[in-house]
Input
Amino acid sequence: MKKATRNFIVTLIIDFLLLFIALFAVQLFKRGNLEISQLYWDLLKLFFITWIIVSIAMNKFRDIDTITYYQGFLLIIKSNFVILFIISFAIVGLHLIPVSRVQTFGSCVLFFLLEGTVFSLFYQRASRKNSLQKPSEMEIPETPVNNSYMLLVVDGLLLIIAFFVMNYLKRANFVILPRYDQLIMILYAIWLPVSLITLKFDRRNFNNFYNAFTPCVKTIAIMASVLAVIVFAFRLFYFSRLQVFGTLAVFLIFEAIVFRLFYLYRKSGKGTGDIESIEQVRAKLDHDESYRSLKETDDAAPVVNPVEQKLNYALEFFSPELFEFIREKIDLLNIDRSRTAVLSTDNIFNIQAFETGRLRLLINLHKVNDLRWLNRYFLEVHNKIKRNGYFVGKVHTIDTHRQHFVNHYPGYLGTLLYGLDFIWRRVFPKLPLAKKVYFAITQGRNRMISKAELYGRLYFCGFKLIAEKEIENRLFFIAQKIKRPSLNQNPTYGPIVTLDRRGYNGNFFKVYKFRTMHPYSEYLQDFVFQKSRLQRGGKFNDDFRLTSWGRFMRENWLDEIPMIYNWIKGDLQLFGVRPLSTHFYDLYTDELKELRKKVKPGLVPPFYADLPETLNEIIESEIRYIKRYLEQPFKTQCIYLWRSFINIVFKGARSH
Output
C-alpha cells in the first residue's frame, strides 16, 4: 500500500473516532447516559454523513507532509464551520424544533477542539522529523481590493426588494408581520460582512461573468448557513422558512441580472473611454506618433483617377440623393479615387486600419448613434484625413427621431411613445447610475443625439461643418478638417455649466449657470453667428443649440440662479454690464472694451433698462451706463435698477 493511501486511511479513521467521541461525550454530559432516542440517532447519522462529505470535498485527509501548520489548522476551522452550517440548515429546514442546541453546538465545538489538539500534536512530531515549513516562514501576498461602492448600494437595495417580493408571494401583500423587522436587520447584519469577505464588489472579478457571479453564490450559501445557525441558536422558529430562504433565492436571481448588466457595462468600456477634455486630447496627441508627424499643410498631389464617377456608382443603390448632395458641396473632380474611402461601420478599428493623413474624402454610411465613443471616433477620422479633407457622416437626431414617431403613430400615441423613447435613449445615457444600465444593455447603440451636440463634437475634434441635408429621415453632414483638435477649452456636459467670462480689469473668471443648451454648444458660437443674425438683446436668432426647457429657463431667468454664487464671491455686482464670452467681447468697440475693464459685470445688465434692439444700440447703452456709473455709482445703480424693474414686471421684458 502506498504511503499517501495509508496516511489517508489512518487520518480518516482517527477523525471518525474524534467525531464519535465528541458526539457521545456531549450526550453523556447533557443527559447523564448514553441512551439515544430516535430523534438523536437521526441527528448522529446527519453528523456522520455531513462530516464525510465535507471532509472529502475539502480534501481534509491529505498527507500532512504536503501542508503547513497554518494551512492545516485553517482547513479544520473551515470544515467545522461548514458542518455546523449544514447541520443547522437541515434542522431549520426540517423544522426539528425539539433538537437540543447544547447537544448540537457542543458536539461541533468539542469536535473542533479534539481535531485541533490531535493535529497540533501530529504536526509537531512530523515537523521535528521532516523539518516542515514553520508558520513564520509563510508569505501571504497582499492584493488591493477595488470595490465598487455603487454596486454595493445597489446590492443592498436588491436585498430589501427581494424581501418584500417574497413577502408578497407568501402573503399577497407588502405588510410586514410583527418581528419580521428583526429578520430584515438580521439579513443586513449578515449580508454586509459576508459580501465584503467574499469580495463580491471587487471590480477585478468582472473580467468574466463566472468570476463576477461566483462570489454572489458563495455569499448566499454563507448567508443561508448563518441564518440557519441563528434561527436554531435563538429558537427563532416563528419565522417562515419560505420567507427566510426564499428571500435569499429571489435575491440571487436579482443579483444575476444586475451583475450581468454591470459585467456587460464594464466589458463595453474596458480599457478605454471617450475623450472629454483638452487634457485627454493633449495626451492622445502626445501618445500617438502619427499626430506628431502629421503635416499641417496640404500637399497637392495630381489627380489621376477622379472619384466622381466611381462614387456615383457606389451610391446609386444606396441613395442617389446623397451623391447629388456630396457632389454639390465637394469638388469630386479634384479628389483621387485612391484617396477616397466609402464604408458602413460602427467599429472604430475599421477607421484605424487606414493610413494616417492619406484620405481626402471619407464617407461612413452607418449612423454615428451606434458609436460608443463619439469623440474618439471623430479623432480617429481626423487623424486619417489630410488637412482640408472631407468627412461625410449620417446621424439620427432628436428631431428626426421625433418626426419618425409622428409619421408612424397616430396623434397622442406618437407623442407618448416618443416621450418614452426620449427618456430611454436621451435621458438614461446622461444620468450617473442609469447610464451604466443603458450602456450595459445597448452597448451604446442607437442612443439619441442632438444636432448641436454632434456638430459641437465635430468642432471640438478639429472639423468645421460645410453642409447638412435631411435624406429619408436621416441627417447627413459634410465636415472639413481645418485644424488640430481643441486644446484651449474643455467641453461642458453636466446640468451646471462653467463658462469663461471677462470681468474686472479684463480678467477671466468662471460663471456658473444651469444648462440651457445641448452639450458641446459652446464650440458652435462662430458657426451660429455666421448662419444667424443677432436678435433683440444681443442673442442669436433661432439658436438651434437651445433645448426646449432651456428657452423656458432663459425667459424666466432660472438658468442664472447659480450666478448668485458669483455674486456672493464678489465676481459680480447686482447691476452691471453682462459678463461676456471672448466671441461677443471681440464684437465690441475698443472704447467699450476699455470702459468694461473699469467696472464689474452684474447680474442684471443695462439691457433691461434701455431695451436696445441692435448690437450698435447695445454698445451705446453699455457705454452710457458705464460713464454714468463711474461718475455717480450709487445714483446710477438705483436709477437703472428701478427702470429695469418697471420693464421686467410691467412691460414683460425677457431674455431670449
Confidence is low (pLDDT under 50) at residues 131-142.
